Amino acid sequence: MIQPSRSERIFQAFNFLFLGLFTLALLLPVLYVLRRSLDVGAFGETSLSLIPREPSLFYYKAVLQDRGVYQPFLNSLILTVVGTLLSIALESMAAYSLSKRDLPGNRLFIYMMVVTMMFSGGLVPSYLLIKGLGLIDKFPWVLILPSCIGAWNIFLIRNYYWSIPASLNESARIDGAQEFTIFSRIVLPLSIPVIAAIALFTGVGYWNTFFSAIIYINTPSKFTFAVKLREILALQMEMQNQFERLAVGQELLLQNLNMEGLYSAMIVISMLPIILVYPYLQKHFAKGIMVGSIKG
Amino acid sequence: MSSLRGRRVFTQTNITLYLMFLPAFLFFLIFAYLPMPGILIAFADYRVSGFKKWVGLENFRYIFQLPFFWEAFGNTWRFVILRYLFTFPAPILFALLLNEVRLKAFQKTVQTVSTLPHFISWVVIAGIWSTILSPNSGYVNNVIKALGGTPIFFFSKPSLFPWLFTGISVWKEVGYSTIIYLAALAGINPELYESAVIDGAGRFKQSLYITLPGLAQTILVVFVLSFSGVLNLFEPIYVLQNQMIISTSEVLDTYTYKLGIVQAKYPLATAVGFFKSTIALVLVLAANFVSRHVTEDKQSIL
Questions:
Q1: Which residues contact A203 (CB under 8 A, 6 or more apart)?
Q2: What residues of chain B lie within 8 A of the CB of A154, using their CB?
Q3: Which of the residues A122, B91, B197, B216 could staple to B178 if both were Cys, CB 3.0 to 4.6 A apart?
Q4: What are the structural domain ranges in chain B?
């Protein structure tokens, strides 16, 4: 073991300090929002503490009692569960067919998918199609169907299937098992690692659904949580702009501060599911990137 | 039974396999291929009531003389340039520093914290930052007030927005983008460092002659792949946008949305979209061309 030199130790100390401060800077905004959501005593004060002065769940209760807020939350939950299950089911089946190299038409299907990874019709044509199909405002299907299958995910799953020893399938086939049985009883259970990883990423995507919801959903009771958040954020920013343009009274200021508290509670609520699955996500994303680097 | 080059196509096994692929087939056909001919709307007079007539390049001529279009065009490029100046190199630097950390627990903690924002949606990110930067009660303005300054209205200053956006992008993506570089760093043969130390190379020279060349291939791949999505700015920009900063925040994507969906000017929006995808395609092909000529084994990324 070589003794670390003086300059080496100085570098280590600085690096440690820098990364530590940087991480704190990354964390600070989230911690501050958390404090803001728990603190009803924050009106107009300029405290820099991250500990709530008058801790209370007031804002959370207010949020959860407001149908206009909890309905979008439930919508996002439904969308995430239904969407993820459907996506995984369709992608894992399609990947199984494509994993059979000698299936006539296999190459054609692959080309068909690769082309979609490079070209798309664009916003207006897609919108007109959805409109033409009568899917506008059809929650949750309009938020699932147009994006429920990812070509890339199919390739990832297919590559994983290839790593399963063929002898397992062969012995099942000799025992007289049909293709679908082999898929559902042998291949799929053995592919849980890749399926779980893709399900997590897909689920996060559905939970964060925003763009398709503002385009395809018109009825407020069918909004996703992200759309609701954006609606309040826009109001909030508009209010702040008013403060700059004209000197407004104390009343509006208080109203704005109160809204910030409510809004912070909504932000925390919307982050909760992500934070809950985060340890599992973390276990997978290194692998996810590795799987992605293998060319199919 | 039909056959293809002597192989039987519709065996029971194959029928099952085709049925399993059928939903995906229909999905790609309907939602990916059916909209494609719709790009022709860019060359037509097309109203909410339907197709009127072909107009050639008239729609393009029209958008090219709109000041708003050029504003959105310029803003888009400003965000792209800022991205490659800051958002792109940040994780490389971060990975290099993180890689030097001996204490694995500390390294893991930093990674865990810094990766989280990647999974949080842009809407929520926008909410977090508007709370932090709020002129009334935001943390940053509280610090400014505590130091005796006047609060800054961060989200109403057009000149500030591009920097604000770049900063928030770095904050959100630096941790996640670091993963791939750390993996590449872990793959560098430690014997290279040992022999460099014996040759008397210091930390800086080791980084310059071993670490960076070892990372070069990964950086190039990430660089080329990043081109394909570089103009897709809708969600991050749209959620942070407000009327007072529209002059520096409107990009081609948000402009297309407002023209096409909000105002229902289908041909104009499609023309803007077409213009954008053409640039995106040229960028990807150019990046691929460059990478093929720069890498030693002349490999193409695509």
A1: A80, A83, A84, A277
A2: 24
A3: B91
A4: 68-294
